[in-house]
Amino acid sequence: MCRNDPEVTESVNTINGPWCPLLPMELIDRLIKKGRYRLVDGEWEKFCPRCSDWWPADTEFFHPFKPYGLQYVCKACEAEMAGRDSASKAMVRMQQHAA
Ligand SMILES: [Zn+2]
Fold this sequence. Notes:
The protein is α+β, with helices and mostly antiparallel strands. It has 3 helices and 5 strands. The strands form 2 sheets. It has a 3-stranded antiparallel beta sheet with strand order 1-2-3. Strand 2 (43-48) and strand 3 (53-56) form a beta hairpin. The longest helix has 14 residues, at 85-98.
């Protein structure tokens, strides 16, 4: 399921049809090299380092997070981590480290 973010320009929406969110190709390149993104059967997938699994790179599985488009971990992991204060602080550190 892909929903376009109205705040994002359409300029990069030619990579592989509509997907969510829209990232600059150079950023996607970097994420692919880091092992965070991959293209499977024409669909972008994003790696969740917490559950070590690949999920469709859209807002159904990841919360939007700028400027990197999607949250560092998947929604399920995020919900788990949000239940514990110390864990959610660790997540913020992880995101800062990733950036
Ligand atoms: Zn996860």
